[in-house]
Design goal:
Elements lengths: L25 E3 L2 E3 L4 H11 L8 E6 L4 E8 L16 E4 L9 E7 L2 E2 L2 E2 L13 E6 L4 E13 L5 H5 L5 E13 L4 E12 L3 H11 L8 E3 L2 E3 L8 E9 L5 E8 L5 E3 L7 E8 L12
Parallel strand pairs: 4-5, 6-11
Antiparallel strand pairs: 1-2, 3-4, 3-9, 5-6, 7-8, 9-10, 10-12, 11-12, 13-14, 14-17, 15-16, 15-18
Pfam families: Sortase
InterPro entries: Sortase, Sortase_dom-sf, Sortase_F
Protein name: Class F sortase
Length: 293
């Protein structure tokens, strides 16, 4: 269905992280990891920040134009073109590429018409920026994508890299034929591409971030020029930040204390200016301020 091209290539770029040993401790942002915990910390970080596993798509729905149906896998034909379902109502997901929701460009294709009339993607030409596309997976989950643009290309000039290539975002591109059917070549003259991007639920993100915030340090005490506090007994906490609050209401971070270090800060300003402490997680999430003393 796609224009003649030599090949479709999908790439996944991996960043190679180098590790440098510097003295007795390894620096992680402003906090240090105790040598005894270094290996387990690296393993936890790897698991925490790995790409979430997405499931294969099994269904597609576009409410704005009444398009929908089951999704099947398609690959690359012998001539280098993307395969399409045999059925006029079938929707094909390009399996050699990425899954919907993963970083990159996931691609689905469907016929625009058949000998008997309109096919599954006939109404794609009516889509507009802002329309939603829903993809269901084999475990019953649903991802929502929002249309960013709809474009028509000559079948010989479709931007293959933009449609199938790598991307920093999480996109789903829908392809079908459009324009006049060319009897000589047995295909339509043009291609229609609907570009979409994954919609992330802001409320869910905020709720998740709120849940990830560590608890505030407690039992903050001042003795002379020394301020101390109790450790926050949570595995995610990697350190503490000490702030001074000035008379005008502004505040400034004055120290960083790792979890294995003594929970104490000494300064001639302690007792004269108010101070407060926050706990910081491995993800960089900061707790609410402790009691100000």
């Amino acid at each position: 269905m796609l224009s003649e091209r030599e090949n479709i290539q999908t790439e996944s770029d991996q960043a190679n992280l180098s590790e440098e040993e510097a003295g007795e401790f390894e620096k992680v942002e402003e906090f240090q990891i105790h040598p005894e915990n270094r290996d387990s910390q690296r393993q936890e970080d790897s698991e925490e920040f790995s790409e979430p596993e997405r499931q294969e798509p099994v269904g597609l729905e576009i409410p704005s134009v009444g398009v929908g149906g089951p999704v099947e896998k398609v690959g690359i034909l012998d001539n280098g073109q993307m395969g399409v379902p045999d059925s006029a109502e079938g929707i094909g997901w390009f399996e050699p590429g990425v899954k919907p929701g993963e970083q990159g460009n996931a691609v689905m294709a469907g016929h625009v018409d058949s000998r008997s009339g309109p096919a599954v993607f006939y109404e794609l030409k009516e889509m507009e920026a802002g329309d939603e596309v829903h993809v269901t997976d084999e475990e019953g989950g649903t991802l929502t994508f929002e249309v960013t643009k709809v474009a028509k290309y000559d079948r010989r000039e479709a931007p293959i890299e933009d449609i199938f290539g790598s991307s920093e975002g999480r996109h789903l591109n829908l392809i079908t034929c459009t324009g006049t059917f060319n009897q000589e070549y047995g295909t339509h003259d043009d291609r229609l591409v609907v570009y979409t991007q994954l919609v992330e639920d802001e409320s869910e993100k905020q709720n998740a971030q709120q849940k990830e915030r560590p608890s505030s340090p407690e039992n903050v005490e001042i003795r002379g020029n020394r301020i101390s506090w109790h450790a926050v007994d949570e595995e995610e906490v990697i350190g503490y930040r000490v702030y001074v609050e000035y008379a005008d209401g502004s505040s400034e971070q004055v120290d960083s204390i790792a979890t294995y270090e003594r929970k104490t800060y000494i300064s001639e300003n302690v007792g004269e200016e108010k101070h407060f402490i926050t706990a910081v997680s491995r993800k960089g999430t900061e707790s609410s301020p402790s009691e100000k003393k």
